[in-house]
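<amino_acid_chain>
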Amino acid sequence: MSRLKLESAEAKLVLLGSVLLLALFASFWTDDAASQEYLNDVSRTPTSINRSGIGIEYDGFTEPKFNILVAASEMGRLETVNVKVGQRVKKGQLVAKLDDELQEQAAVGAKIRAEMRGEVEAAQAEAAVMQLRVEQLRSLADQQMARPYELKRAIADWEIAKKQVMAAQEQIQLRQHEWARYETQFQRRRVLAPMDGVVAKIFHAPGEYISPSDPAVIRLLVLDEIYAVFNVPVDEAEGITVGSAVSVHVSSLRKGLTGQVETVSPEIDGESGTVEVRVLLDNRDGKLRSGDRCQMLGVAKRNAALPTTPARRNDGGRNGLPSIGRQR
């Protein structure tokens, strides 16, 4: 009997130990889940709310002032690519060329037709003969030696000859216009840089076909001026104005630069509750690169009405993780 009681007590102890282990595991799992959820919430917030109004660093990245896909205006086989990745190009510089033999021949033929003057000169000579005949008949008519009908007919022929000269000149104008059109088609086979910049990528190699669905030949970055882009919480963005000077630290340079706020977006990102701020930096020396990490030192606007962030607590009564952001 005593042995049965002993086995029953041992079973109860094992059961109690299992329940305690399950409770402890549930406590740790709840705490970890809550911490992970809080970290996820905090990771979507670029900076901490600074209620004292002192300086705050906002993390961001750099972007080129213009990121241009330089495309061919016509379709056809790519004959040459005259640039390399990383090469600086000037506005109007030839970066690539499509095969243009057919267009060149058409432009040459149009030029020859536009420069032909035979029809005009023949019409002018005919008009001169008609004018001379009219003058002679007028002289004879004054002497009553020519019939009136002959003079009227000569005047009409002279008018027709002058119109033929005009028609020949108009034909030359049309041919010149045609020449200009063929010359434009010929020039459109060349891909020119739209502005000064640096070649970032080449999409097609010589011999490949350029189609209307994929016309881009190179990607050109304009880096003489560069943007530092930051996402600032709405309440703190109220203290940032367009045209104001701010301090920006670029990671690759390891030093501070002074930039000017170019734009403050009127749109709020609904997921993060932030506003995009773009700061323009001078990069004429070419030391800044696109995609570099950077920080902006801003000043948070005092706002006593800002809601407090509730502290998360686990089963042990410890405070939750602090909000991210670095204060100076």
About this structure: The longest helix spans residues 2-43. Helices lie at 2-43, 101-115, 118-142, 148-187, 234-237. The CA atoms of residues 120 and 170 lie 9 Å apart.
